[in-house]
Specification:
alpha/beta, Rossmann fold, 23 helices
């Protein structure tokens, strides 16, 4: 675009009038020209070197529109002028870039006043010191381009005039991310950082520090509106809320006129709960804000104590002496985006060669030299103060503090340096290669990598939701003012400010805090655990007792107490009880396919044999006593041995039930992920629950029948029958299994297995103790009672 503008510039301009009488009759305005260096073509500049100082910072009396505040030199800003001069020097020394063309410069210093900006711009379009726009009396000193301003408002004012003459202007301006700003002439080219990228950088910065409750300060003009309109959607997309967006009056005079209003704005800002404020203001406008802030601190003895995030429009390093502006303390701890810059070869040497005594030195150098080195020149027309020394011209710039002047090119100076080179290269392409359009870029602006602070301010309306919680926005509340709720059971969140909680994988579960998933524990009853050891030991002990009893009864098989009540049934009952105790081991350990198939079926069949034997023994007792009465049918029934039929038929029925169970829906190993929170239950799925309870029901039926018969025969002579003991044993057996059902249904995992094992052992031990322990007592400790005569005498036979 610069090249196209230069093409229009090369067209014939208004011819110079030759009669001096006509020139004198125009009575042009006069404006003090700060610096002018002749050349074939002129690169103009309007750069900030001075700043306005408010004489009455309390704003009790503010200036009228025609009044101007005092202007003070900002030492750091002189580098802008030096960067422009150095770039022109490099271009003039490069004979291949613009051969036979010499660039000159004409620089004015902006004071942030509209009237002075207009005068300076019109003067750039005029000849010499006379303000006659676009009126040239010679071929030299023709205006090629204008660099500046570094302030968006001033740049717009200049562009309104330069655009009419198609003069390329490279400066700071407003932006619009969606379309071109129609209020800015096409001759204007921006050299400030890309604002869209800067907005993205601001969002990344806020996300990095987890700030989502912020304020905005922007100029009350189109650039400020564009900034807010571009930044706000990005903030909304990332759940960052804007508590307020204040517009600042950019012009110095207008600001002074509204000083009292801004004192109230500053007071509200100080009292706001917002801890982070993004400031999109240039150095001039932002300086106007520092005065009221300093006054507010003194009057109310309060401090903003906020984190200020400053965009690249603000050049902190150009503020000069710290003692000149105490208001900078209000920005202690501020974060500022830096304009890209890099070391320019030869610039340090150029600075070291500056000499205020040289005739060709610019008009700014002597005054600047006096300020930064605090000295006076002899013959300057001023009476030297006793407190100031003489300026020798040999002072070293390297000795100046960094906040006064930096020998390294700053970001704004680097932009000016690149702008001048861009103009030169565009002119080179226009003059020598009209068909080409090479773009010379000064480098890509990159934001510095931000490091986290050891301490982050609370720039939020609520505390952040830690991992393990999720956000919930109450009704009629901004999205940033959310509530934190704990993750529901079985879910987790491992991020701060999570929007929702997530379910863990099936084999994992949330930890106690709900901020991560852990592998679930495996739940089964192993031999290594205390419960497994105790149950296995108890099963072995009862099995050993049963074996000893069986051995005792076999050894004493010819004694009357063993022969009574069917000796064969006694052996069958003891063996079945032994198998009942041993089947407990099928329930201990990790369930496998074989153990799952055998566990319940073996338990059901073996216990059916045991209860059938008890029922057969009870019926045998009843029939034996009935057979002693003459003419009773019991003798015939005893001859048919009904006990053997009962012991055979009842287990066969239970076996048939188990076969149907295994054939239709057999048990199988299964992993249960949901019954117990945080654990994986390794279990034997019973397959058909109906068949499982059929097995239990049949055993209950046999136990109830045995209990009923034994209860009816409980009053028979004690020394000859065991009906009373069977009654007690069946009472224990039924009590155990009646309490087993609700307990079994209310437990899960290895506790359920332990309940069933305990029920097996307890019911078997009840049968063993109630039926056989009294007999063993007589056999081992009272052998004199184990005789036929004693038994016959007790029964009265």
């Amino acid at each position: 675009m610069i090249r196209l503008l230069l093409l229009s510039w090369l067209l014939p301009q208004v011819s110079c009038l030759t009669k001096r009488t006509e020139t004198r009759s125009m009575k042009p305005f006069r404006l003090y020209e700060n610096f002018h260096r002749e050349g074939d073509l002129i690169v103009g500049g309007n750069l900030p070197l001075f700043r306005a100082v408010v004489k009455d910072p309390s704003f009790k009396e503010y200036f009228r529109e025609q009044d101007h505040p005092e202007l003070k030199l900002v030492p750091k800003n002189y580098q802008y002028i030096l960067a422009l001069q150095f770039a022109i020097k490099e271009i003039n020394e490069d004979r291949t870039l613009l051969p036979n063309v010499t660039l000159g410069s004409r620089i004015y210093t902006e004071c942030n006043f509209a009237s002075k900006t207009m005068e300076a711009t019109l003067s750039l379009l005029s000849t010499g010191r006379q303000m006659v726009p676009n009126y040239k009396c010679n071929r030299r000193d023709q205006l090629l381009s204008v660099i500046g301003s570094l302030d968006a408002t001033t740049s717009r004012q200049m562009a309104s005039i330069l655009g009419s003459f198609k003069i390329p202007q490279l400066g700071y301006g407003s932006f619009n991310c969606d379309k071109e700003d129609e209020t800015v002439p096409s001759s204007f080219c921006r050299i400030d950082p890309n604002q869209v990228l800067q907005c993205r950088g601001l969002v990344q910065l806020l996300l990095y520090f987890h700030w989502n409750w912020i304020g905005l300060l922007a100029p009350e003009e189109s650039s400020g509106e564009n900034f807010i309109q571009t930044l706000t959607p990005l903030l909304t997309q990332n759940d960052i809320c804007v508590a307020f967006a204040r517009r600042v009056i950019p012009e110095t005079v207008a600001f002074l006129q509204h000083g009292k209003i801004w004192m109230k704005h500053i007071s509200d800002l100080f009292k706001s709960d917002v801890q982070v404020v993004i400031v999109f203001l240039d150095s001039n406008t932002l300086r106007n804000l520092l005065g009221p802030m300093s006054v507010m601190k003194k009057l109310n003895k309060i401090s903003a104590r906020k984190v200020w995030v400053l965009t690249a429009q603000w050049d902190f390093v150009t503020e000069g002496s710290q003692k000149q502006w105490k208001g900078l303390k209000s920005f202690h701890g501020a974060l500022s985006f830096q304009i890209y810059s890099k070391e320019v070869p030869g610039f340090a040497q150029f600075l070291s060669e500056l000499d205020p005594h040289q005739p060709q030195a610019d008009a700014f150098l002597c005054r600047w030299w006096r300020v930064v080195f605090d000295c006076e020149f002899l013959g300057s027309g001023l009476i030297p103060s006793r407190s100031k020394r003489k300026c020798t011209g040999e002072e070293k710039l390297e000795d100046l503090p960094a906040f006064v002047f930096s020998v390294t090119m700053t970001g704004h100076s680097y932009s000016i340096y690149n702008a001048v080179h861009s103009v030169a290269h565009a002119l080179h392409d226009t003059m020598h290669s009209p068909g080409t359009n090479r773009a010379v870029m000064g480098g890509v602006n990159r934001l510095p990598k931000l490091q986290p602070w050891q301490e982050i301010p609370f720039a939020r309306c609520v505390k952040r939701c830690p991992p393990g919680q999720s956000r919930r926005v109450p009704e009629e509340k901004p999205v940033c003012c959310y509530e934190c709720i704990s993750c529901p059971e079985g879910t987790f969140s491992n991020q701060t400010d999570a929007t929702h909680c997530t379910s863990c994988p099936e084999d994992q579960c949330p930890n106690k805090d709900g901020d991560q998933c852990l592998l679930k524990k495996i739940n089964f009853l192993p031999y290594q655990e205390t419960g497994g050891v105790l149950l296995a030991s108890l099963a072995l002990f009862l099995s050993l007792i049963t074996l000893l009893m069986l051995a005792t009864f076999i050894k004493q098989r010819d004694t009357p107490i063993v022969k009574a009540n069917n000796r064969s049934l006694t052996y069958v009952l003891l063996v079945s009880l032994l198998l009942c105790f041993l089947c407990s081991f099928l329930f201990i350990g990790r369930p496998r396919k074989v153990t799952c198939l055998l566990r319940q079926t073996t338990f059901g069949i073996v216990f059916s044999v045991a209860i059938s034997s008890v029922l057969a023994k009870t019926i045998t007792v009843v029939l034996a006593f009935m057979a002693t009465k003459p003419g009773n049918m019991a003798r015939k029934l005893l001859a048919r041995q009904p006990a053997n039929s009962i012991v055979l038929i009842c287990p066969l029925i239970q076996t048939a039930i188990c076969v149907v169970w295994l054939a239709t829906s057999p048990p199988f190993p299964n992993l249960d992920f949901h019954s117990i929170a945080g654990e994986i239950v390794v279990e034997c799925n019973e397959g058909s629950v109906t068949m499982f309870y059929n097995v239990l029901s049949f055993m209950g039926f046999l136990a109830l029948a045995s209990f009923t018969v034994a209860f009816l025969a409980r009053k028979l002579p004690d020394s000859f029958n065991e009906a009373k003991f069977i009654t007690f044993s069946m009472l224990v057996f039924c009590s155990v299994w009646v309490s087993f059902v609700p307990t079994y249904l209310s437990t899960k995992g290895k506790i359920m297995v332990a309940v069933e094992i305990f029920s097996i052992l307890a019911s078997g031990a009840g049968l063993l103790a109630c039926i056989f322990l009294p007999k063993c007592y007589i056999i081992l400790l009272k052998p004199n009672l184990n005789s036929r005569e004693h038994l016959m005498r007790k029964t009265g036979i």
